[in-house]
Structure formats: structure tokens, C-alpha cells
Design a protein that fits this description.
Aldehyde Dehydrogenase, Chain A, domain 1; Aldehyde Dehydrogenase, Chain A, domain 2; 15 helices; 39% helix; globular
Length: 486
């Protein structure tokens, strides 16, 4: 197996990054581009031995990194961000080749956000404080102490952005990291290791172990030296991770996707509402926050559907490297089969495909809108994670909110209305970690992000990230009893 492969003209190391050096495994797994099915390379396939070595490296590096001053940690994280900026084009083309998302999005939004993740948490670290307060004359002082080695398990739909959303605050907090990227899109995590090393991040502070979660996941999540685990992915996998982490009572942060609603009221700007709805096809529907359940007030449903179909029919699906493409391929044939299975079962149960409803060329799933769906049906209740939307109608505000909340999930919700009072009433009653009103996907790292119900445990962003990656300590000091040793 070659130690390096070339992807879109960019050399990428195929080995793990453990303790500041490259480590190969005896076995490999094949990384395939979703764009055309071409083999990108053979990637080191981690075993429990490599997982244990990465945790050991993180444990060994932790005392020195935790003792590093906030200012120095922030300086190094800014240097990592600088490295991302310098290699932005390389990161963009490699990630597009590896996971099939639009190259224009990687260039203009995703990779700049990767650099911003590091800069934001570096800067937030320098302002992190809680005002001292008194209790019967005693001084209370709150501090954030680094917790220890952290295992971060990240998904394939936005590999580097979502990885650095975890890596950056964990490192800023003074923790060391073992990053396990998704096996369907591992390449930019390897490039991140190179960038971090070049920026001066000490050996062992960031480790990257590639492979299958079924083979190395338990070795990472049940390890007694791991102090934090953060995972983004599916509910079934989260249950396995939680059971594994329970052996050591390791704190968990879980972001588990959703089945988010888009509520469109009759008083909404209809063109805006249609734009918001069509936007849910972004990244071929492979977005945890996507509002896949369109809930439209009955009096405007016919006109909304007509405009939606007209706009969605103008979307261009194809090669994500083409600037004219709006929707790229599905990440993997198995995911395509999963999406198609959902749609086939739904139509067999009576749903009607207004648009789409089929795969194309074995790699692309046509943007799909299903109507005539029952509230308790699988297609309404379960996350598809593909370009598949359902449309249901409601008559009253009360009914709309009830339908919006009637799933096991609670990650996000979107509301389209021209009535500010209604917006306030509805958002107060929606079960969701994030609610957008007359907009979508406006994100700020200062804000808490996470979900309710089966959409997750905990929140990420701003001080909430540091609260998770640190052990919070309150020091209470008596006002008297000091001896003068001068």
C-alpha cells in the first residue's frame, strides 16, 4: 500500500497520525469517490491497537498541553487557521472528490468556515470568564479546567467543517484529541493533521485514526483514559457509543440529526417560503438540519406546490465540480439504496411523488417531493438523509404546531409567516434546538447548537463547548484566617 495517494492533484497521506508521526495498519479499506465511483486509494484500516496507541499518545501529551497558557494555545489555533486558509483550494477539491458536495460551496463557505472554527474558539478562550461572586463574605471563583483526552467521532456529510467544530474547542479548552473521521470521507482529516503539525501543535495533541467504527469504536469509547466523547451521526450508533461510554461514565455530547419541519402559514411571503423549501435539497439532502417535512396551510397549499415544483425543476443535478451544478451525488451506493427504499415503501403505502421518486445513474437521487403521506408513516417519522421532502397541509395554527412537534426528533424548525406575533407564539411552542423564522441556516458559533429528544444530548458553541470539554470548578475562599509571612 502506498503511503500517499494523489487526489485532484493533491498528495494525501493514507496512514493514521498518532503521537506526531504517521502510522500504518496491516490492513486497508478502499476509499471511493461518489462522483464517478473511482477508487481514490487504500486507507489504513485501524484496529484496537491503533486506537489504544492514539489514546496513549493523547494521554501523554495532555499534561503539557493543559498547562500551556491560554494565549499560547490561542496563538497555535490561529496558526492552524492560517494553514487552512493557505491550503483552502486543496482542501476544497479533495473534500469534493471524497464526499461529493459542491466544490463552489467548499470554496466559498465550508472551508472558510473551517478556518473560522479555529479562530472563533481561540478568541473565545481569551474571553472565557465568570464574574466572581460572594457568599456571606466568601469569594467564589469559577474556572474551566481541561478535562483530558477527548474522542471525537465525525460524520461524512461535511467532514472537515464538522470535525473542526469539535476539534477547535476541544484543543482550545486544553484537551488532547483522538479524531475518528467517517470511513466514507477520511481524506481531509489526514490533511488537517499535516496542517496542525506545520502550525506547531505539539505531538500527540491531535491524533487521527481511520477505519470502521464497528472495529475500533469500542476501543475508543470505552477506554478508561478518555475523558470526553463527542459524536455526530445516527441514533443507533449513538446508542452503542453511549453503552460503551457507560462503562467509564465518560461524558457524552451527541448530535443525532432530525426530522425538522418547515411551517408555512398563509400570511407568509410565498416566494420566500418556496425558496426556503427548495433550499432543503442542499448537499443532496444530506444535512442534519434539513426541514424535510413541509407543513403548509391548506388555503395556500395548491399555489405553494405549483411554485415549488416550478422552482425545483430548474435545479441542475450532476458533477459537483461544475459551477452550474446545484445538487451532487449521494455519498455511497448503500446510502442511495437506503433513500430509495424509503421512497419505494412510501409510494407502496399510498404516497404520491409529485417530482422525483427515483435514482439516476446509480449515484444520484432525483430531488423528490411526496404528498398524500400519513403523519404516522415511516417517511414522515424517520430521517431519510437524502433529497426527499414530504408535504402535508394543516388548517389552524394549533394543528400546524402539533404536526411539527409530532416526531421523536427535535433538532431544528423553520417558520415562514408575515405575522410577528404568530412567529413568537409558534416558536415558543416548537420543540427544537434551533428555530429559524423567515430564513434558514443562519449560524453563529456564539449560539448554542444541539437537539431535543432523539436529536441529541448537550449543546455546542460559545461557552457551551467549553462547559463540555472542561471540568468546571468553583473555588470558595474565606475572607479571614490569612497569616502574614512577609
Amino acid at each position: 500500500m502506498p503511503d500517499k495517494i494523489t487526489v485532484a492533484g493533491v498528495p494525501v497521506d493514507t496512514r493514521h497520525w498518532i503521537g506526531g508521526r504517521r502510522v500504518a495498519s496491516g490492513d486497508t479499506f478502499t476509499d471511493v469517490s461518489p462522483i464517478d465511483g473511482s477508487v481514490l486509494g487504500e486507507i489504513s484500516r485501524g484496529t484496537p491497537a491503533e486506537a489504544a496507541a492514539a489514546v496513549a499518545a493523547a494521554k501523554a501529551a495532555f499534561p503539557a498541553w493543559a498547562a500551556t497558557s491560554r494565549a499560547e494555545r490561542a496563538r497555535i489555533l490561529h496558526a492552524v487557521a492560517d494553514g487552512v486558509d493557505k491550503r483552502l483550494e486543496e482542501l476544497a477539491v479533495v473534500e469534493t472528490t471524497d464526499n461529493g458536495a459542491l466544490l463552489r460551496s467548499h470554496r466559498r463557505g465550508v472551508m472558510p468556515r473551517v478556518a473560522h472554527n479555529f479562530r472563533f474558539f481561540a478568541d473565545w478562550l481569551l474571553t472565557l470568564e465568570h464574574e466572581d461572586f460572594e457568599t456571606r463574605g466568601h469569594r467564589n471563583h469559577v474556572s474551566w479546567d481541561p478535562a483530558g483526552p477527548s474522542v471525537l467521532i465525525t460524520p461524512w456529510n461535511a467532514p472537515l467543517m464538522l470535525a473542526t467544530w469539535k476539534v477547535a474547542p476541544a484543543l482550545a479548552a486544553g484537551n488532547t484529541v483522538v479524531l475518528k473521521p467517517a470511513e466514507w470521507s477520511p481524506l481531509t482529516a489526514s490533511l488537517l493533521a499535516d496542517i496542525a503539525a506545520a502550525a506547531g501543535l505539539p505531538a500527540g495533541v491531535l491524533n487521527v485514526v481511520q477505519g470502521y467504527g464497528s472495529e475500533i469504536g469500542d476501543a475508543l469509547t470505552s477506554h478508561p483514559d478518555v475523558r470526553r466523547i463527542s459524536f455526530t451521526g445516527s441514533v443507533p450508533t449513538a446508542r452503542r457509543i453511549a453503552a460503551s461510554a457507560a462503562t467509564q461514565l465518560t461524558p457524552l455530547s451527541l448530535e443525532l440529526g432530525g426530522k425538522s419541519p418547515l411551517l408555512v402559514f398563509a400570511d407568509a411571503d410565498l416566494d420566500l417560503a418556496v425558496d426556503l423549501a427548495v433550499e432543503q435539497y442542499d448537499n443532496a439532502g444530506q444535512v442534519c438540519l434539513a426541514a424535510t417535512r413541509l407543513l403548509v396551510q391548506e388555503s395556500i397549499a395548491e399555489e405553494f406546490t405549483r411554485r415549488f415544483v416550478e422552482k425545483a425543476s430548474r435545479l441542475t443535478q450532476g458533477d459537483p465540480r461544475d459551477e452550474a451544478t446545484d445538487i451532487g451525488p449521494t455519498i455511497h451506493p448503500r446510502q442511495l439504496e437506503k433513500i430509495d427504499g424509503f421512497v419505494r415503501r412510501a409510494t407502496a403505502a399510498g404516497a404520491r411523488a409529485v417530482i422525483g421518486g427515483h435514482a439516476e445513474d446509480g449515484r444520484y437521487y432525483a430531488p423528490t417531493l411526496l404528498t398524500d403521506v400519513a403523519q404516522d408513516s415511516e417517511i414522515v417519522q424517520e430521517e431519510v438523509f437524502g433529497p426527499v421532502l414530504t408535504l402535508q397541509t394543516f388548517t389552524t395554527e394549533e394543528e400546524g404546531v402539533r404536526l411539527a412537534n409530532d416526531t421523536r426528533f427535535g433538532l431544528a424548525a423553520t417558520v415562514a409567516t408575515g405575522d410577528r406575533a404568530r412567529a413568537d407564539r409558534v416558536t415558543d411552542r416548537l420543540v427544537a434546538g434551533t428555530v429559524w423564522v423567515n430564513c434558514f441556516f443562519v449560524r453563529d458559533l456564539q449560539a448554542p447548537f444541539g437537539g431535543s429528544r432523539l436529536s441529541g444530548v448537550g449543546r455546542e458553541g460559545g461557552t457551551w463547548s467549553f462547559d463540555f470539554y472542561c471540568d468546571l470548578k468553583n473555588t470558595v475562599t474565606a475572607p479571614e484566617g490569612w497569616q502574614d509571612h512577609g
